């Protein structure tokens, strides 16, 4: 089943076209990676899909229902959540209070106590820090709160914008392992924008390369990771070793 379908989406900032006629889809339970250089339009694309930016043209459908120009709140109510690059936590509120905000707009459908236990199982450190102010956490712990807040309402589609930025590799691995495990267990559809193209491609069921606001290449994550030209530009010199392949989280 196609969970998210984006067709010919275009977004402009004034007279500057940031996203131009982009089309992609994500099937239920898949992890789709959007990769490309800084300024390629990836974040703008996610914001437009989420309804946080108005599109000039094109359409976004969730589980076959066209969202039109519905506001962000309607996207959330229908099951789509964005974890933005800067996390946007409320630093003067506790970890648990930040997590509870994930139920906003959908409180009747969410048993907060049960969902909170589930999030604490995914990220045990958050239970230890539940009474701590979010602004005093490490960057990795803040990212866990942001993801936990998104997952607490059981979305059907999770949009992740640069979740690894500024984090240590071991923390990134821990967070990505949780995402992959949760996706596999719950059938969650994930759309991932990630600066670490190598990691993103080896997690992805399907991947799209974006340049100057347009999709210029698509395929499975493995196909794009094995593309010599793409590997030279985005993955660095050398191919991935068998050990690296074995250690990489798998989107299965």
Description:
- This protein has helices spanning 42-50, 72-78, 95-100, 112-122, 124-128, 139-151, 169-186, 197-203, 221-225, 228-235, 242-247, and strands at 2-13, 16-27, 31-35, 57-62, 65-66, 80-83, 157-161, 189-193, 206-211, 214-219.
- The two termini are 16 Å apart.
- It is an alpha/beta fold and 252 residues long.
- It folds into 2 domains: 2-79 and 156-247, 3-Layer(aba) Sandwich (Rossmann fold), CATH 3.40.50; 87-154, no CATH class.
- The longest helix is centred in the C-terminal third of the chain and has 18 residues, at 169-186.
- The strands form 2 sheets. A 6-stranded mixed beta sheet has the order 6-7-8-3-9-10, sandwiched between helices.
- Residues 237-246 have low confidence and may be disordered.
- The chain is built from 11 helices and 10 strands.
The rounded Rg comes to 18 Å
Element pattern in H and E? EEEHEEHEHHHHEHEHEEHHH
The number of helices is 11
User: Architecture of the largest domain, CATH level 2?
Assistant: 3-Layer(aba) Sandwich
Sheet with most strands:
6 strands, mixed
Bin the helical content.
25-40%
Assign the CATH superfamily of the largest domain. P-loop containing nucleotide triphosphate hydrolases
CATH class of the largest domain: Alpha Beta
Tally of domains: 2
Please state how the strands of the largest beta sheet are arranged side by side: 6-7-8-3-9-10
**What's the quaternary structure here?**
single chain
- On the 0 to 100 scale, the average pLDDT is 90
Q: Uncertain spans, ≥5 residues at pLDDT below 50? A: 237-246
């Amino acid at each position: 089943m196609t969970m998210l379908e984006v067709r010919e989406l275009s977004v402009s900032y004034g007279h500057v076209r940031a996203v131009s006629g982009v089309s992609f889809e994500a099937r239920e339970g898949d992890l789709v990676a959007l990769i490309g250089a800084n300024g390629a339009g990836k974040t703008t694309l996610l914001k437009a899909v989420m309804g946080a930016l108005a599109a000039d043209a094109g359409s976004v459908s969730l589980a076959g229902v066209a969202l039109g120009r519905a506001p962000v709140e309607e996207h959330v109510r229908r099951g789509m959540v964005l974890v933005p690059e800067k996390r946007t936590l409320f630093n003067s509120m506790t970890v648990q209070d930040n997590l509870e905000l994930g139920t906003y707009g959908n409180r009747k459908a969410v048993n907060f106590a049960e969902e909170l236990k589930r999030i604490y199982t995914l990220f045990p450190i958050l239970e230890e820090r539940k009474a701590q102010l979010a602004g005093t956490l490490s960057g990795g712990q803040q990212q866990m709160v942001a993801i936990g807040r998104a997952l607490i309402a059981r979305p059907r589609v999770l949009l992740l914008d640069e979740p690894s930025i500024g984090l240590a590799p071991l923390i990134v691995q821990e967070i990505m392992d949780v995402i992959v495990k949760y996706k596999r267990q719950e059938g969650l559809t994930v759309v991932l924008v990630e600066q670490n193209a190598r990691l993103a491609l080896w997690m992805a069921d399907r991947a799209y390369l974006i340049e100057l606001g347009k999709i210029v290449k698509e395929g499975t994550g493995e196909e794009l990771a094995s593309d010599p030209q793409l590997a030279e530009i985005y993955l660095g010199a050398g191919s991935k070793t068998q050990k690296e392949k074995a250690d990489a989280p798998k989107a299965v």
